[in-house]
Each structure stands twice: as structure tokens, then as C-alpha cells.
Amino acid sequence: MAITINSKRENEDDQTVFFSIDYDGAKSWHGDIPKDADPQEFLDAKEDTLKVEILRKQYKGADVPQLEDKTPLESFEAWIAAGCKNAEITETTVTPAQPAVDAVMGTRTKTAEESEEVTTTEIVEVDGKMVQREVKETVTKQVPVTKEVPLFNEAGEEIGTHSIDETEKYEISPAIEAVEESSETVVVRAETVVSKIDWKDTTE
Hints:
mainly beta, 2 domains, three-stranded antiparallel beta sheet, two-stranded antiparallel sheet, 51% strand
């Protein structure tokens, strides 16, 4: 029999069973089981599960793939037989294709820079006296560019000219070139070998 009950302790809600299991050498362990369960029957039914837990304690960080048509224990043992290697993990990022986009154009009033001399009045203290004086400065601003166009009456006869603002086209948003779909694969985790840790027996 692979599992031998050594002793047990009654707790308030369950029982702690100390046992030996023969798996890759004799190992002493313990576990809590239902209060009304028969320790031998309970542990015998979970023998494979216990063995998997033993392996998980001895191979910390093992990433064991579940093999098709294999039990968890068989999968773990196959992983060990293959060299205790956690497989390389890669991650692929896909950038979807983007169609070309034409520039978006708009129309606005054309402006030109215009300078004018502006006279303002200020009051300053000069030799202890408050003096009002004129200050001239040149101010530059943007003003609409206009043009003269013929003006007609309802009969289609030209009767003079009319001034209108000139307009110009400008780019609201630039054109975007088409982008082909691309992908990039990076290694998230390199293949690693997990070292086995010595088993430490537990006693009552």
C-alpha cells in the first residue's frame, strides 16, 4: 500500500492525519480531512492528487501542460521526463492595416498684416508733477484681404463694383498614408529549467 496512516489528531471541525506515502522514496506528510471520513479510504482515493501536490512542492514554479488523454499526474511525470522545462512563451502584437486618408481642407478668409500708428494718452509723474502726454506706437494686426468685383442690377446691367473678402484654402488635417498590417512577436518568458527541491518530511 502506497499510503500508511501513522497517527491522527481530532480537531473541532476536522481531523489532521499524519501519513507516509511511498512516491519517489518514502515521504512523511500530513493533511486535514473531514471529521467523519475514514483516513485510509480518504487518502487512498486521493493518492494521485497527493502525488501531484508533492511534485508541485518539489518543482516550484513548474508550468505543466495538461496532456490529452493523460491524468494530471501523468502529465507532470511526462514534464519531468522531458527535462523539467517550462516552455518558451511568446506574445504577438498585430497592428491592423489602415487605409489611406486624404487631407481635409477648409476655406477661410485671407488675411494680411497691416501696421498703423496708434496714439494713446497716459499720465505720468515728471519732476513731482502729474503730466498728461500722448504716446504713439505702431500696432500690427491681421486684416481681411478684399477685392473689388463687378456689381449688377436685377436686369444684368453692371452698375458699379462691390468689395468682398478674398478666401484661401488651408489644411485642417494632413493626409495619412496607407499602412499595411504588421505583427511583432516578443519572448515573454524564455525556456527555463526548473530545479528539483529536496523533500522535507513533516511530523506530528
